Amino acid sequence: MFSNYFKVAFRYLTKHPLYSSINIGGLAIGLAIAFLIVLYIQFELSYDEFHEKADRLYRVSVISRKQGSAPSETPEFTPPIGPAMKSEFAEVENYARLSTPRPAYISHNEQAFKVDGIAFADSTLFDLFSFTLLEGDSRSALAQPFSIVLTREIAIRIFGETNPVGQIVKLDNGNIYIVTGIIQPPPPNSHLRFEALISFSTLYRLPNLFLDWDGGNQYVTYVLLAANAGPEAVQQKFPDLMWRHINKQLSGIGVSYEPYLQPVRDIHLRYNPESESVRINLSVMGAISILILFIACVNFVNLATAQSLSRSKEVGIRKVLGATRSSLVKKFLGESFVLSGVAVIASLLLLEILSGVFNEVTGRTSIFVSQMRVSTAAILVGISFLVAFASGLYPALSLSSMEAARTLKGGTATFKKTSRNILLILQFAISIGFGISTMVIGSQLRFVKSKDLGYRKDNMVVLPLIGDEARSRYEALKAALSRLPGVVSVAGSSDVPHDGFTSNGYFPEGSSTPMMIHVVDVDAAFLSTYGIDIARGRGFSGRSAAEKDAYLINETLARELNWDNPIGKTIRRNGDHEVIGVVKDFHYATLHDRIEPLIFTNRPWLDQYADLTVSVQSHDLHRTLSSFNEAWKQVVPSSPFNYFFLDDAVDRVYKREEQFQTMLGWSSLLAIVVASSGLLSLVALSVRQRTKEIGIRKVLGATVPGIIALISREYLKLIVAANVVAWPVAAYLMSVWLQDFAYRMDLPWWTFLLAGSAALAAALVAIIIQSLKAAIANPVDALRYE
Asked: How many other β-carbons are positioned within 10 Å of the β-carbon of residue 765?
C-alpha cells in the first residue's frame, strides 16, 4: 500500500520538475552544510581520543605568581619537574618531556631540507602516547643522545623510499645525528604536532642550556597516572614539592610557581592559547548549520504549502472516487518523504563537492561522509524526515478536510499567512545578519592590514640565518648583501616584528621583583632599516663596545615604570644595563594585542643573530632575489638559503579571521539563495490566490507595473522588517567580535545598508519573476480560473 503511494508521489514530482528541484535543492543545501559542520564539530571534539591511555594522560601546566603582577600561566616549564614527580609521587607511573617545536634544517649529502616542527622528546614518549613507530625500536629510538626520529613524509623527502634507519644527518648544518626510527605523523586530531623528534638526552650534551629548576622554561611535561590514581591526589602534593625544589629559593623576591594537571583530551578545547577561538568557532559554525538548515526547512514547508493549493480539484475527484481522509494524508506524506529522501541523497553528493571548499575555509584535512559517526548521521537523516513529515502533514490535513463539492466548484484551502510571514522575516534576517558580519570582518581585516604599524613592512625580505656557519658569518653576509644593486639597507636581529617577541624577567632600577618584558636583539641598522623612530636619547651606533651592554626601551615600558626621563636608568639582568634611548611604540605583535613593554639589546644570545632583514627597491624583485642567492652561496656555501617577505608574514597572522570571513561569506550567499527561493514560493502562493483579483484589476485598467507593485508591496515590507530584526542583533554580535582586537575600527554603517540592499534586490528578483507572469497574463483566462 505504502509503496503505491510512493510510486504515485514520485510520478507526480517528475511532472513538476521546477517545483521538485527547488524544494529538493534547498533542503539538500541545508542538509549538506549541516553534515559538513557536524563532521567538523565531531572532529574538533575527538582530539587526542586515539591514545590508548588517554584517560590517564595529563599535561603539567604552571601558574606563575609575582608580587605586584597578575598571575600568568604556561605549560612550558623547567625539565626537572617530570623526574621529580615520578620519583616522589606514587600516583605518577611515568612521564615524558618535549621541547617547544621549532623550524630547523636537516641536511644529508650536502642537501638541506626544511622541517617546520622539530622537538626534543624523552624515550618514554611512546609509552605514554599511541604514536605509531614504523621503523626502529620504540624503547630505544629516543634513548641515546644525538638520536633523531623522522616522520615518514620527512624521511621520504630526504632519503626517498629507502629505509634511513642508521643514516647520518646534520641539524642546522651543525651537530650530527643518527636516524633511529621512522614515525607515522601525528593524526590531524592530535594537539601534539611534530615532523621530527630528537632524544631529550641530547640537551644535556649541548652547551649553554639551562636545564635545572631555575632556568630553561621551554619544556612541556606530560605524566601518566597509575590506573587507580586521580589528579586531585597529585595536585595536593604539588605545594610541598615546589617549595622544596624552587619556591623556597624564590620566596625572597615574591615569586612562586603552582603546577596543576590538565587532562590531555581537554587540551585542545580548554587549555591551548587558541582554545577560546576554537570554542567560539564551534559555536558559530554550529549556529550557522542550524540557521541554514532552518531556512531550508522553512522553504520546504512553504513550497509544499504553495504547491498544494493547485491540487484542490484533484483532492475533490479522489474523494468522489472513494478516497478517505487518511489515504489522502498518506499520499501527501509520501510525496514529502520522497522529496526528503532525494534531498538526503543529493546532500551527500553535495557534501563531497563542498568538502574541498570547506577544507580550505576551516584549514582542516578533507572531510568525507565515511568519517561521520552512525549516530550522528542517523540524527541528521531523522531531522530531514521529520521536516518531510511536518511539511506534508500541514497541507495534507488542510486539503483532506475540504468537502468534495467545494473543491470541484473551484474552492481552495486557506492557509494563514502570519506564521509564514514570520518565518520569511527570520529567513531574511539571518541572511542579512550573515552579510553584515561578513562585511564587518572584511573591513576589520582591511583596517589591520592598512594600519600604520610603526615600522616598514613592504619590500622587506627576511633571510633566516640557518646553522652556525651562517650565524657566525653574519657580518660577511651583511656586507655582501649591502653591495648588491636594489638593496637599500640590511639589518640583523633575533626575530622580526609581526607575531610578537619573546620575553624574559628583568629588574628595572628601584624594583626588587622581576618584571616580564618582551625583548629583541638588534644590530645598529635595525631601527633605520625598519623605519622605527627614536623618541628620546639615541640608538645603537655600532661604534662603541660599551653599547653591547646598553638597552633601548619603548615608550610603553617608560610609561609603565613612570620614568619621566629614562635616559641613564638601569635595568638588571646578568648585570646592570644602562638605558640610552627610548624608541617610539610600534606594533611588533598583532593588533589583537596592545603594545606591551619592550627592550632592545645589542648583544644577541651567543653573539649570533637569527635573521637578516633586507630592505629592497620594488622593481625587478626576481633578479634581486637571485643575486641574494648567489651572494649567499659565495659567503656560506654549505648553509641553506631561504627567505620570506615580511608583509606576507604579517598577513598570515590573520589567517583565522580570513577563514572566518570566507565561511560567513559562503553562508551569506547560500542563505540569500535559499531564502529567495522561499520567497518565490510565497509569491507564487499569493499570485495563485489572487488570480481573479488580478484579472479584474486588469479589466479595470490596471497596468503591468501597477500589478507588480501591488504584489511586491506586501513582501517588501517583510524585507524591511527583516532588516529591523537583523541590524541590532548583527551590531551586537560584531561589537563582541571586535573586542578581540585591541586596535579596531568603528562599526561601518554602510555594511548594514549594503547587506539590507542586497537582500532587498534578491527579494525583488524573486517577486518580479512570479508577479510578472500574473501581470502579463490574459485577464479573460484569469477570470475563468478555477
From this structure: 12
User: pLDDT tens-digit profile of 211-258?
Assistant: 888 777 789 999 999 988 889 999 999 999 999 999 988 887 778 889
Identify any residues that bridge with 507 across adjacent strands, giving them in sequence order: 572
In order, the DSSP letters of 384-423 are: HHHHHHHHHHHHHHHHHTS-HHHHHTT------HHHHHHH
Beta strand 92-99 pairing with 503-508: unpaired
Question: How far apart, in whole angstroms, are the C-alpha atoms of residue 203 and residue 193?
Answer: 20
Secondary structure class of 69 (helix, strand, coil): coil
Residue 254 corresponds to which cell in the numbers above? Answer: 615574591
Whether 463 contacts 642, CB under 8 Å = yes
Q: Are 44 and 263 in contact (CB under 8 A)?
A: no
d(CA 580, CA 553): 8
Would you say 332 and 318 are in contact if contact means Cβ atoms under 8 Å apart? no
381-412 pLDDT, tens per residue? 777 677 667 666 666 666 666 565 555 555 55
Q: Which helix (H) or strand (E) holds 429?
A: helix 417-450
Q: How many other C-beta atoms lie within 10 A of the C-beta of residue 68?
A: 9
| C-beta separation of 323 from 399 below 8 A | no
Cα–Cα dist 665/445, whole Å = 14
Rounded to whole angstroms, the Cα distance separating 500 from 484 reads 30
Count Cα atoms within 13 angstroms, Cβ side, for 143: 7
**pTM of the predicted protein model:** 0.72
Task: Report the pLDDT value the prediction gives residue 409, as an integer from 0 to 100.
Answer: 53
CB atoms within 10 A of CB 382: 10
CA 678 to chain centre: 32
* Cβ partners under 8 Å of residue 506, min gap 6: 514, 515, 516, 517, 571, 572, 573, 599
The identity of residue 671, as a single letter, is A
Q: Helix or strand or coil: residue 501?
A: coil
Phi and psi angles of residue 468, each rounded to the nearest 5 degrees, phi first? -65, -35
